[in-house]
Amino acid sequence: MSIRKQAMTRRQLLSKSAMFGASFAIGSGFVAGQATAANWAVEVEHLKPETMATLIQLARDIYPHDQVSDEYYAVAVKGYDSADAAEGIEVGIAELNEAAKGIGFANYIDVGWERDRVDLLRGMEDSAFFQQIRGGLVTGLYNQKAIWPIFGYEGESFSKGGYIDRGFDDINWL
Amino acid sequence: MSAPFDMNDDNVVVIIGTGAGGGVLANELAQKGVSVVALEAGGRYLPEDYINDEWDSFGQLAWTDPRTTSGDWRVAKDFSGLPAWIVKAVGGTTTHWAGASLRFQDHEWKPRTTYGDIEGANLLDWPIDPREMDDYYTKAENKLGVTRTGGRAGLPGSNNYKVFEKGAKALGYEEVHTGRMAINSADFDDRLACQQTGFCFQGCKWGAKWSSAYTDIPRGEATGNLEVRDRCHVMRIEHNEQGKVTSVVYVDADGNQQEQRARVVCVAGNSIESPRLLLNSASSMFPDGLANSSGQVGRNYMRHVTGSVYAVFDQPVRMWRGTTMAGIIQDEAKNDPSRGFVGGYELETLSLGLPFMAAFLDPGAWGREFTTALDHYENMAGMWIVGEDMPQETNRITLNHDVTDQHGLAVADVHFDDHPNDVAMRNHAYKQGIAVYEAVGATRVFPTPPYPSTHNLGTNRMSEDPRDGVVNRHGQTHDISNLFVSDGSQFTSGASENPTLTIVALAIRQADFIAAELSKNTL
Ligand SMILES: Cc1cc2nc3c(=O)[nH]c(=O)nc-3n(C[C@H](O)[C@H](O)[C@H](O)COP(=O)(O)OP(=O)(O)OC[C@H]3O[C@@H](n4cnc5c(N)ncnc54)[C@H](O)[C@@H]3O)c2cc1C
Ligand code: SF4
Q: What is the residue range of the signal peptide feature (chain A) (predicted)?
């Protein structure tokens, strides 16, 4: 029996999923790789470094997990540092900074309390820019295998023989 | 003549789609010596190919050709381009399914008689007596190896199940167990016992869960009477001046158009693609689409009343360990209009991995209210609601001529508005589901909105009277005697049970009918 393997790569899926529309923009910002907080800054090619820093803060404000370090947020938004995406991102971040000025701060990063930043974001949550970033993070952040252990999620188990002998019924507090 | 068959062989039965309906029908006919060509839009994947990673598996198996949505259902807002979660692969959605395999209750075959005249609902009784189905259900259970039937043991209870069971018992529920599942609790039918890997939705790498991809399809092929052509997308069905179907036109794996002649055509592309294909096959003789003299093709789209309840506890549950669906409460499945709605619902445990939980727990949500829920992912338990929804004529699949797929064909628009009965049922189920978890000490609960439709039903429904529906009691179209519908789109009503066991039972029954008619030369 001939079995044709035609598994789509993640990138193919992502370009396909662009057709799903803004409300299902899975992973438009996803980048596989092991970038770290230390090297994202040197790696920006198309975005201004301060734009990337703001983008990372924005990502954290959208999906804040205090136990997840910046490097994972950086990985999640790193894909916007591309020739295609950079211009739109610069415009979106500039608007965000303008909004911050409107409430008396130099820029978005300068807004000290998360509560105040979130207020700004609530005012723009229906914008295409906000939805692009939020939608992209759904897979960009949560589909990073490296963060799964932080949430306790164990991922695939086939290679270990499943959970039949590894605690599928080990609950002990009921 | 044995497979492979010639394009001009007009003695073959052509089946479109190889999922629960088409895959089973293909094998059943092949076993009876009938020549079958099965055309499948998707590729061929076997357990060694399945990927135990939620998004990668979705990319491998799911139907992601464009579709559009309309109506007041929340899916149209959250997942506007993805109304349904359906597989495009040999084996169809039986690669993804969780395996819950329940018979209809007797009264559910007669919803119009049982529930009466419900405003806005297009209720109709099935033209089938429940007793006619008993033997076919038994055959289907034995084919799928359903647990807790035919002397097969139930599956052991997982962590997610134990939380659910304890809450259910505390509420006084009595019909609570680890389900009737098409998942082996012991080796059966050349398939392994379940290893509790927890990726049932991504294709079972052990083959413990039944799927037509690695059971019925290869067995049918082994007879020499079945040829499965994968990556072949059927564009339209052709007919002659007598109004009989004669061939199907499809795009093959290399992108070339082909035409396969046929004695009989059986449509089994799932409840969105099957009506789309009939509508896209409109001709001067059938301007509203094939088999559509009733105007019911595409109408009465049902998706079950669904929703989920997740809950967080102060201690770990680790719900992802073990079968994706691990148990059921059936006490609410009865018809008890005193609850404020007709029909009933099942509560079934469900687990999603972290990536899908992030996408589906509360689509569109952000900020700490959302992320603190995921922070306690390890302490979460979950269940899914599946209840009978009301068929409505205006809930329907239509052709959206403004959007075309990669073959240039108009795509399906899926329109759905909740019926007030659906809303009342969902709210009742949320309340009960929350109570189950609160009874075991949940610290926070989440009444989660429906996902893209996994149960797609009713769009070529069965009826006694040709004016009320598309097919007769055998799934044969009222208008064209050699054109059949063989998937979940035949459903006259949805009942409260997961549909696949009934799709399979109807396919076995239809194979008996088609083979008998062929041998009488009446087809
Ligand atoms: C995540 C998930 C979990 C589920 N769990 C359960 C469960 O526990 N219990 C249960 O009863 N049900 C469950 N279901 C539902 C079940 O899988 C479906 O009801 C069932 O598979 C439908 O059978 P079908 O024959 O109608 O269509 P499918 O199984 O979807 O098969 C249709 C096939 O037709 C092909 N096709 C479509 N159009 C064309 C065309 N034009 N040309 C060629 N081929 C075409 C498709 O590619 C597909 O392979 C689940 C579904 C999902 C997604
Ligand atoms: S839990 Fe069992 S049925 Fe599900 S994928 Fe794993 S082995 Fe298969």
A: 1-37
